[in-house]
Amino acid sequence: MSLHYTFPPAAGYPLNRCLYRLKSDEAFRERYLKDPEGTLREAGLDAERVAALRALDRDRLLALGAHAYLVFMAGLRLKMATAPQTFERF
Amino acid sequence: MPQRSVPIVPLYVNAYLPPQPTPARCYAWGQALRAILDARPERVALLASGGLSHFPGSDRYGSPDYDWDHQMLDKLVAGRGRETAALTGEELDKAGNVEFRTWITLLGAVGDARAKVICYEPSWHHGNAVVTWPVGPVA
Questions:
Q1: Tally of domains within chain B
Q2: Which H/E stretch holds residue B116?
């Protein structure tokens, strides 16, 4: 059985760095919400990674080396920023 | 902002990024903490926070392992917390209980005290438990 939480491959660093910043860097998150494509491109992601991240396609992101917890937290923070009213009881 | 009147010392336990501490190491850390606290004059409360069965970001997010949680809580109520030191990181990952490392650290400090389970509420994505260990002052 493979683990749910593994150490990401080094090649996944730029992608994980972007996920981390969406989670914890408010200025980066705001910039991303205004210009997702440009912000991620500037951060070094290629078209495939930009598309996977913009879609928050978890399976695709994990296949590209993202850490599951960062995918979750980045998605949560973006949802908090864009659609706070959609949160159900936690 | 209100001023806090007691000192708080946070202790971070790495749950998600390998290499995480083993359960045995978490337990031993708690034991060491207890030995230090027993030699101190202050009255100290320990709080451990961490999701029971919880798989954030994984394909198991909507299917927590409630059975694992119940079995574990039964063990803690029976005062068998030291058995958690024998768990493996793989077992915790499989049950979505990687954050249980914080509990294990606390268990090292409370020893064989029996847990009192105040509540256990399963949600659609994890288990919420509130548990206390009444540990009396050192004789």
A1: 1
A2: strand B116-122
Choose the closest CB to B17 out of A1, A7, A73: A7
DSSP state of B114: P
Question: Beta strands B127-132 and B116-122: pairing type?
Answer: antiparallel
Give the domain range for residue B40: 22-132
B63 touches chain A (CB under 8 A): no
In a domain, B65, yes or no: yes
pLDDT tens digits, A42-90 = 999 999 999 999 999 999 999 999 999 999 999 999 999 999 888 766 5
Residue B9, domain member (yes or no): no
Q: What is the CATH number of the domain that holds B103?
A: 3.40.830.10
- pLDDT attached to residue A89: 60
Best A4, A53, A69 residue to mutate vs chain B (most B CBs within 10 Å): A4
Q: Does B96 touch chain A (CB under 8 A)?
A: yes
Rounded (5°) CA angle B62-B68-B73: 120
B91 occurs within a structural domain? yes
